Amino acid sequence: MSSLHPRAGRRCHNAVNPLHATVYFSPDHARELALIGVEDTSAAYFAGRAAPLGAVGPGTVSAAFYNFSHELIARHLPAVWDTASPAAVLDARTRAVDATLRRLLGDDTVSSPEMAEAARLALTATEACTRHARPLYSAHADLPVPGEPHLALWHAATLLREHRGDGHLAALLSAGLDPLEALVSHTATGKGMSPRWILASRGWRRTDWEAASGRLRERGLLDREGGLTEAGTALREELEEHTDRLDLAPYQHLGADGVARLTELGRGFVLTATAAGAFPDGLAGKG
């Protein structure tokens, strides 16, 4: 068996995570949440992703989600739970995942041997995930594994995403980046969400963005044009390497060959989903 490349886990995450993300950009998710009374799109997102934590308030979600404005979260939580219980939200989310993957990938792909293989591989990787200091992962790990392969793959992709994400928050804290500084510096890499999308969806104001940019310039991480300095580039890479170290166990457990195969399958599914319009225009970039 070949040895695992140091960045193989990151590459696998990058190939599988977009499949998890499709549901939160999907009209199917908005529709299913609206059918149980949650009509505001921000409320639907917070409820859909936080439901495994139970009927939590804004403080818990601000801590676990990290990069959203607490003010925005508090507009919707805990009030959303008076409209729909966490259990009802989870049922609606599952219906949305089913509808989204069938619409984006097609029934033939959903029922294919490759889908079942990817689900098995991803679930095997999750066997080595750890709960301590990982609230979003741990809450999702309490949920039952769905029986249908495409739903099982989405569940496993979500576990892997939240496991890495929880570890990434520890890395951000270690680097001394607050929520908006993390977003600004990630956007400056050219791989993060666009400022326009962040301001529209995360609850921050343009003045907040400029203030965070100023703090990063004072630390020598951002230049006058908003690009990363050499020190900023080094910090962002160390953040990813720190996250890789905290997220190594699932991919070591799966093994190099399994990781390579899951990466291949995940990329294929995501390319198909993207071509079918899974993600909005203007989501990523510096503009």
Automatic annotation (TrEMBL):
It comes from the Bacteria. InterPro entries: HTH_67. Pfam families: HTH_67. This is SalK. It comes from Streptomyces pacificus.
